[in-house]
Every structure is written in structure tokens, then in C-alpha cells.
Design goal:
This protein is an all-alpha fold. It has helices at about 5-15, 15-20, 35-50, 55-65, 70-80, 90-110. Helices cover about 70% and strands about 0% of the residues.
Length: about 110
């Protein structure tokens, strides 16, 4: 499993984590198009409702988008199957997320 998956899972299922890290995450940090779109919907929902999105609402919002093709819908279904609640050590997760953000910010700045 990649750190991006763990970040997305915890943004959905862990409100405390979501509130701590969401202001520091950026759509451009997620290089995979599907992960980037999922993050965009998570962030948009949080900005509007000040609560983490649920998996069900996330699926609905992603599938309503006009920029997703039929084949991508099937790929998103596979991604959503991997979105599950995980018991992750909070200290480790915060450190890894911070490291992820720093690396991606430098990478994007170089590009």
C-alpha cells in the first residue's frame, strides 16, 4: 500500500487527522489522476461542510463529475473498494504525511 492510499483512507475515516493535515495537502501532491480527483472531492466537501466526507458521498460526488470517462468509472470502483477504515498509529501517520508533503512540495517546485 502506498502512503497516498493511507492518507486518503484517514482523511475519510479520521476526523482529527483530517482537520490536522488537510490544510497542508495539495491536489498536485497526488500524481495519480484518480487519487487527485478523490482528494479534490474530499477537500471540496470539507470546505463546504466542515466535516470529513463519507465513502458513499465521495463515490456519488466523483461519479457526478463530467471529466470522468466510462472506463475511468470502473477504475474508480476498484479504488473505492480499497477505501477502508484502518487502525494506524497517529504519530507515525502525521510524521509520514508531513514528510510526504515536504517531498511533494520540493518535487513540484523543481518541475
Amino acid at each position: 500500500m502506498r502512503i497516498e492510499n493511507t492518507i486518503i483512507n484517514n482523511l475519510i475515516y479520521d476526523e482529527e487527522y483530517c482537520r490536522k493535515v488537510l490544510p497542508f495537502l495539495n491536489k498536485r501532491y497526488f500524481q495519480d489522476r484518480k487519487e487527485s480527483i478523490i482528494f479534490e472531492e474530499i477537500n471540496k466537501f470539507f470546505q463546504e461542510y466542515n466535516k470529513p466526507i463519507t465513502k458513499e458521498i465521495l463515490q456519488i460526488e466523483v461519479m457526478k463529475r463530467n471529466d470522468i470517462s466510462g472506463t475511468e468509472e470502473q477504475e474508480f470502483s476498484k479504488v473505492f473498494d480499497g477505501v477502508v477504515k484502518q487502525d494506524t498509529n497517529q504519530d507515525w501517520l502525521l510524521n509520514e504525511t508531513e514528510s510526504f508533503c515536504k517531498k511533494k512540495a520540493v518535487y513540484n517546485a523543481v518541475l
